[in-house]
């Protein structure tokens, strides 16, 4: 049950697009279309942004999108806005009814 | 409106025990699996346990298996996390969260309750 690998930080200017990667293995990300992404602002609870790799919950901006290729899932944020600055975590089903998170990525909007 | 409210956090000595509670409202509680997720200070998220809607099936990662027990009382719309043999590394904010059935994701979260394990 090793953590998924995310970059520690990414940054972008307002209006730009950024992509956060989430690398797992053939036992988790690579085997299941059950990757989710969470946004967390300081001192706040996480918020679901993407589930089942590509699906957006009601109320989440369509500027957020998800994808997967092999053992790596990705979260793309287009048209960056100041309020997107937060920590982002990926999570994947890892078999045997277990789930594993990534280490988190701090997004800075320049 | 879906609401989740944790309680029961606090300071406990290493080796001690603590029981967290999560009160749910705004949805048919018994229809949803529920989970606990924690976050150590300055660290990332870690899934801690999950329980089926009926309460008949529970799940844990190796890091807490045998020490933590998740349970629920559907008549009260509450679920719990009994934490025994606590260690310093269990220090974290503990969040309760509602599972999206079949999606291995959590769509609603509580505000968190802080647990500190220290002598």
Protein architecture, described:
The complex is a heterodimer of chains A (110) and B (119). Chain A is mainly β and 110 residues long. Chain A contains no helices and nine strands. Chain A starts with 8 loop residues before the first strand and ends with a strand. In chain B, a hairpin with a 4-residue loop joins strand 9 (92-100) and strand 10. The chains are: A mainly beta (110), B mainly beta (119). At the A-B interface, strand 3, strand 7 and strand 8 of A face strand 5 and strand 10 of B.
Which key phrases capture this entry?
heterodimer, A: 110 residues, mainly beta, three-stranded antiparallel beta sheet, 0% helix, B: 119 residues, four-stranded antiparallel beta sheet, 11 strands
Broad shape of chain A: globular
Radius of gyration of chain B: 13 Å
Instruction: Report how far apart the termini of chain B are.
Output: 40 Å
Average pLDDT confidence of chain B is: 97
* Helix coverage percent of chain B: under 10%
* Helix-strand category of chain B: mainly beta
List the secondary-structure elements of chain B in sequence, H or E: EEEEEEEEEEE
Topology:
The complex is a heterodimer of chains A (110) and B (119).
Chain A: E1 9-12, E2 18-23, E3 35-40, E4 47-50, E5 64-69, E6 72-77, E7 86-93, E8 99-101, E9 105-109
Parallel strand pairs in A: 1-9
Antiparallel strand pairs in A: 2-6, 3-4, 3-7, 5-6, 7-8, 7-9
Chain B: E1 3-7, E2 10-12, E3 18-25, E4 34-39, E5 45-51, E6 58-59, E7 68-73, E8 78-83, E9 92-100, E10 105-109, E11 113-117
Parallel strand pairs in B: 2-11
Antiparallel strand pairs in B: 1-3, 3-8, 4-5, 4-9, 5-6, 7-8, 9-10, 9-11
Provide a brief overview of the structure.
The complex is a heterodimer of chains A (110) and B (119). Helices cover 0% and strands 44% of the residues of chain A. Chain A has 110 residues and is mainly beta.
């Amino acid at each position: 049950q090793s953590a998924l690998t995310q970059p520690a930080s990414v940054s972008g200017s307002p209006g730009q697009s950024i992509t956060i990667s989430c690398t797992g293995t053939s036992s988790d990300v690579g085997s299941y279309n059950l990757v989710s992404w969470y946004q967390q602002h300081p001192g706040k609870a996480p918020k679901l942004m993407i589930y089942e790799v590509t699906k957006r919950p009601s109320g989440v901006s369509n500027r957020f999108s998800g994808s997967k290729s092999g053992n790596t899932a990705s979260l793309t944020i287009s048209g960056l806005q100041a309020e997107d600055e937060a920590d982002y975590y990926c999570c994947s089903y890892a078999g045997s009814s277990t789930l594993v998170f990534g280490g988190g990525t701090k997004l800075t909007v320049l | 409106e879906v609401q989740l409210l944790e309680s029961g956090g606090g300071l406990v000595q290493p080796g001690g025990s603590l029981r967290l509670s999560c009160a749910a409202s705004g949805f048919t509680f018994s229809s949803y699996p529920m989970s606990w997720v924690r976050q150590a200070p300055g660290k990332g998220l870690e899934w801690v346990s999950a329980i089926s809607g009926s309460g008949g099936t529970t799940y844990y990662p190796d890091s807490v298996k045998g020490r933590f027990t998740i349970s629920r009382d559907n008549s009260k719309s509450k679920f719990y996390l009994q934490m025994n043999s606590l260690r310093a590394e269990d220090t974290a904010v503990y969040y309760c969260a509602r599972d999206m059935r079949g999606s291995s994701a959590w769509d609603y979260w509580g505000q968190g309750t802080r647990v500190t394990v220290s002598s």
